[in-house]
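I am still getting used to backbone structure tokens and would like to learn alongside you. To get us started, please write out a protein record for me. Once you have written the record down, we can walk along the chain together.
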Amino acid sequence: MQITITKNQKEIKEHGNYGFPVGVNLEAIEAYEQGAFLWHWHPEIELTRIMSGQLEYHVNNKKYILAEGEGMFGNSNTLHAGYMISGQACTYLSVTFHPRFLYGYENSILQTKYVDFITSNDAWHSLKLEKETGWHQKVLHIMQEIYRLSLDPPLDYELEVHMMLMKIWKKFYQYYHTLPEKEQKPQRHLERLREIIFYVQENYQQEITLDDVARHVNICKSECCRFFKKHMGMTIFEYVMFLRIQRSLPLLRDGESVTKTAGMVGFSSPAYYGQIFKRYMKCTPGEYRTRLGTFTH
């Protein structure tokens, strides 16, 4: 499986519904194609707790290694992705909720004083929840309780979850309120990273050169290459190849031929597509389809 996103990388999946905008899910990184979920964003706040194994988690320009018993706070509208570490399985709990679930109605004091204070600050995009920090562990424990309730929801489930999330949010507010005031407007380097990723996602089916990307964000080639590698941990070329393979998987699953699939995602030849596919997927496109039980020629 893979996360479904719009052209501007917003996740399409609903987290709960309008009446109860909360999603509680136990997930496994190995269930995602290539052991990774792609860069995406959503307006919901996301709390993650590692149940077993380890996860490499990226939020905006920051990289975290999360181990069992640790977790992550991901702010509203942050760009994030996750990767398997050394081919090892990892199970994690995700509790995702829309900020309005906390404050109820627009421009209430709960929104303007307590929620916007954190969600509007781009510098506070994420926070690692660690074993050694007492209040972090309290947050992770409450998450565990929310998950337990979700398995067998009591009559007052929604009310219980709301109160638990308010307890969690109070701890974040108390923490961030002690920090020095940060710059509120988006940081230029994060905007640039988003621009590069968006440009590649829009143009991956065509030939993309470093010149094209550098020109798009108005910096020189060497700086563009260094900047992307620093923040993404891979070169622009590697990201293009990774994205093309990801985009080819649904086509193969739908029974499209290998030759046509290669052309549709931007490869110059089926042979080259097969070579790159095997590098990422550890099998050929044909073997991948056979494994899924799709035998369309």
In short: The chain has a mean pLDDT of 86. The CA atoms of residues 111 and 225 lie 40 Å apart. The two ends are 22 Å apart (CA to CA). Strands lie at 22-28, 36-40, 45-52, 54-59, 62-67, 71-74, 80-83, 91-97, 126-129.
